[in-house]
Amino acid sequence: MGLQSLTSLEKSEKVFVDSNILIYHLTQDELYGELSRNFLKRIEEGELSGYTSPVVVSEVLFMFIKAWIMGHKGIAPGKIIHYLKRNPQVLGEIDLSKPIELVSTLEVLPTTEETISHSYAYISKYHLLPNDAINLSLIRKNGIRNLVTQDSDFNDVDIVGVWNLKIHGGK
After folding, report:
1. Where in the chain does DSSP place strands (E)?
2. Could you say which of 17, 31, 89, 108 has the lowest number of CB atoms within 10 Å?
3. Which of 57, 53, 100, 94 is nearest to 73 (CA)?
């Protein structure tokens, strides 16, 4: 199916939203924040049906927590895990309402043993890391034909349409 521009995604389509799209929106990314917001607004307004996974939710929450700690505590990215292990109470200071509200606009698909079993083949066939392979397995199991991501690891996946915020000429 190949990589496609998100602007040409037709109304009423089911789309699986990868973590990077949500993170760009939440962190107001300079390059992709507005494009992510515009895309997610289409889901919020019911133009598209949005889906995601527990893996994506975990990734989004963790990246949001990391960004908050870097911004509010001045901790370097490579030291955040160590900092959190020594200061777990800091998690109580973080307002998670924004990522929770954002994720609530999507249907979170359940991961099953079957999903995990099928993901193993995608690791080998498409050279995906485990989280991406699990997401691809969920997409296939639930009959979703569209994946929205900026993750170039999906560029060679030919069993779903891979939609991108910007293509080739963009960054």
Report:
1. 3-5, 14-17, 49-52, 107-108, 146-148, 161-164
2. 89
3. 94
pLDDT for the residue 109: 98
- CATH for 3-55+95-164, options being 3.40.50.2300, 3.40.50.1010, 3.30.460.80, 3.30.1370.10: 3.40.50.1010
pTM for the model: 0.92
Work out the angle at residue 3's Cα, subtended by the Cα atoms of residues 27 and 135, and round it to the nearest 5 degrees: 60
Q: How far apart are CA 165 and CA 99, in angstroms?
A: 20
HSE-up of 164 (CA within 13 Å, CB side)? 17
- Closest by CA to 6, choosing from 132, 147, 151, 111, is 147
